[in-house]
Amino acid sequence: MAILNKLAKENDFGLRRLAVIGLGNHKNAASFQALQNILENEKDDSVLAEAAIALQYSQQSQAKELIAKLQQDEHYRVVAAALEVAASWDNT
Asked: How far apart are CA 53 and CA 79, in angstroms?
């Protein structure tokens, strides 16, 4: 996780996206906290969209609140990802 947290702070948005994907694969409280921090501080819409997708399989109850907030984002890519996640939860 330390490497993923370091990558999440890189200048290159591609590395930050990879970090988010990796954090989403961990599915634990520490990775959820890291994703939450990224969602609060990230400016790049592709990284934010990837973070929304990473929350899809989160077991954290706060994930639904974060997805609802992302549905109000100004970037269509983030909104689309959040809506996709919310739809997948509705179908389960």
From this structure: 11
